[in-house]
Every structure is written in structure tokens, then in C-alpha cells.
Design brief:
The chain has one domain. It has strands at about 1-5, 5-10, 20-25, 30-35, 45, 50-55, 60-65, 70-75, 75-80, 85-90, 95, 100-105. About 15% of the residues are buried. The strands form four sheets. The protein has a six-stranded antiparallel β-sheet with strand order 1-2-10-7-6-3, with no helix packed on it. Strands 4-5 form a two-stranded antiparallel sheet. The protein is an all-beta fold and about 110 residues long. Helices cover about 0% and strands about 50% of the residues.
């Protein structure tokens, strides 16, 4: 289990990854962006090889595949080395009365 700010990363088996997910595009810098700070523009990102898989339903978790391992970087947090494998990406949410959920704003 790995945590970087409001991002939690859990290693999972390949069999636990849902079949109908779509690969997320990389940003202009070629990174896989797991979360982008609304106020700062800072990003929790993986700059190297890998795939971020998303569902069309934003309430479902994202999955990250790193066939050779990788690094999770952020402008204000220490870099985290990740082993090769599959990971579930969980973004921290906060309670807002009347709303289903809201991601924590960076």
C-alpha cells in the first residue's frame, strides 16, 4: 500500500481488474496523471511506461498497470518507487452535505 498526499495506491492481482476499462491519455508532458491539483496545477503522475485504465463511470476506481515498475512523482511530495504489477488508484474524498462525493481539492 502506498500513499502520496490524497492518492492511495493498492497493489492488486490482474484478475481483479474489470474488463471494460479504457486507457487514459497521457498529458502534454507524456505523464500518466492520477490526480491534478485544481488550485496549484501540481500532479500526482507516473512519467514512465505504464497504462492508467479508467471507467466511464467516474464513481468506479482507476487502475494502473506498470509492467516494469515505475515512479509516482509530485511537485510537493517525495517520489515513490512502485514495483511492477497492477494497482488500484483511490483518490481521497470528502463529505459534502447533499453531494454523492467530492474529491479532495489540492
Amino acid at each position: 500500500m502506498y500513499r502520496q498526499g490524497d492518492i492511495l495506491i493498492l497493489q492488486v492481482t490482474a484478475e481483479s481488474v474489470p474488463a471494460r476499462l479504457e486507457a487514459a491519455p497521457r498529458d502534454a508532458r507524456g505523464r500518466l496523471v492520477l490526480a491534478l491539483g485544481e488550485a496549484t496545477g501540481h500532479a500526482h503522475a507516473v512519467p514512465g511506461p505504464g497504462t492508467l485504465l479508467l471507467s466511464r463511470d467516474s464513481r468506479l476506481p482507476e487502475f494502473l498497470h506498470l509492467p516494469d515498475g515505475g515512479r509516482l512523482v509530485h511537485e510537493e511530495h517525495a517520489t515513490i518507487s512502485l514495483p511492477k504489477g497492477w494497482f488500484r488508484v483511490v483518490r481521497q474524498r470528502e463529505y459534502v452535505p447533499g453531494a454523492y462525493h467530492r474529491y479532495v481539492a489540492d
